[in-house]
Amino acid sequence: MADSLGESPAEYKARVLSYQAGADPLALQAAAPDRLASLVEGMSQEALDWQPEPGKWSAREIVAHLADDELVGAYRIRLILSAPGTPIQAFDQAIWARTGRYNAADLGMSLELFRVLRRTNLALLRLLSPTEWEMSGVHAERGQESLRDIARYYAGHDINHFRQLESIRRRTGHGTGAAEQGNEADKAP
Hints:
Elements: H1 9-20, H2 25-40, H3 45-49, H4 59-82, E1 87-88, H5 93-99, H6 107-125, H7 130-133, E2 136-139, E3 143-146, H8 147-171
Parallel strand pairs: 1-2
Antiparallel strand pairs: 2-3
């Protein structure tokens, strides 16, 4: 199955992981809630709801997605810890966006949910033993993933969406809030 960029799940995963390569994934994740808030700070309602093109997410929808995805991550981490080797179900993010009404989500609530869940997940990850870091599950699309892999993936996933938010800020006249980092951000959902 290909995504909106025409990438396979393996290609998407490789791209997302490349964004955080060489960095401490827990440090990146710890900085993410403040970074996310700064990327939407000062944006008008119109800018928050602006979509780069039909079918692409607005800033509001990206923030709601990150909150939901952190919830999914919380479940996956705990599932793997309690049942190593377990299957990890994928989810269709477009369906979640539609059924979760991301386009009408309260921005403040999405930011707070992301912040609380991220803090909670990081607290647990920081307590893992070396053996627990290597525990894994089998993702339906990406294959075997250890908790270490998941931590790296979430750090890169944040960066992927931060790039999209920087692009939206730039394209709506709000600046990027950070150095520009390529045009791939305009393409992903």
